[in-house]
Amino acid sequence: MASFWKIDMNYEDIQVGAVYTFLRAIAKQDVLDFASLTGDVNKLHIDAEFGERSIFKKNIVHGMLAGSLFSTLVGVHCPGENGVYLSQTLQFRRPIFYRDTLEVRGTVLSKHDSIRIITLKTEILRDKEVLISGEARVRVTK
Questions:
Q1: Average of pLDDT values for 88-104?
Q2: What is the C-alpha separation between 63 and 34, in angstroms, rounded?
Q3: Do residues 48 and 134 make contact, with C-beta atoms less than 8 angstroms apart?
Q4: CA dihedral angle for residue 77, residue 102, residue 37, residue 5, rounded to 10 degrees
Q5: Residue (of 45, 25, 44) closest to 99 by Cα position
Q6: Domain residue ranges in the chain
Q7: Residue 9, by phi and psi: left (phi above 0), alpha (psi -120 to 50) or beta?
Q8: How far is the C-alpha of 37 from the C-alpha of 74, rounded, in Å?
Q9: pLDDT digits (tens, 9 = 90+) for 50-88
Q10: Which 8-state DSSP code applies to residue 73?
Q11: 14-27+60-140 sits in which CATH class?
């Protein structure tokens, strides 16, 4: 299991414009484990010959596997254990491949003081290219 630098932020600690990031490499075993866990055994993700014949010319990572890294962003980096994930939008812009190293980024767009909710611009990048984008809404409990 990976170790992370865990941050537990209070609502007052969070500033609009602040950016939180971490890196994560996606291994073939991650994809196989995700396929086993979810039952999504689409050959595009797990069969090398099928992947070679696809429009991508190789296997791609499940979009939802990559998107699930936003849970780490919220649960570990901003705000950490004081956060309750309320919603997440996702736009899949480019494919992700085995062995890609991804930058997971969250930028605080807004704070709603009366209800203690923050909105984050969420992005997954490879070499500065946005692969997945969206917005997360998170309630900060402290």
A1: 98
A2: 11
A3: no
A4: -30
A5: 25
A6: 14-27+60-140
A7: beta
A8: 22
A9: 999 999 999 999 999 999 999 999 999 999 999 999 999
A10: I
A11: alpha beta
pLDDT tops 60 at residue 6: no
Closest CA to 65 of 7, 136, 132: 132
Concatenated DSSP letters for 16-30?
TT-EEEEEEEPPHHH
* Residues 35, 8: Cα–Cα separation, whole Å: 31
Give yes or no for a contact between 48 and 118, defined as CB atoms under 8 angstroms apart. no
Q: Which pLDDT tens digit goes with each residue over 13-47?
A: 999 999 999 999 999 999 999 999 999 999 999 99
State the DSSP H helix or E strand holding residue 72, giving kind and residue range, or none if neither: helix 69-72
Taking the C-alpha atoms of residue 30 and residue 19, their distance in angstroms, rounded to an integer, is 26
In this structure, the chain runs to a length of: 142
**Model confidence, pTM:** 0.91
Q: Residue type for 103, please?
A: E
Closest-CA residue to 87 (of 65, 114, 119): 119
Say if CB 83 and CB 139 are below 8 A apart.
Answer: yes
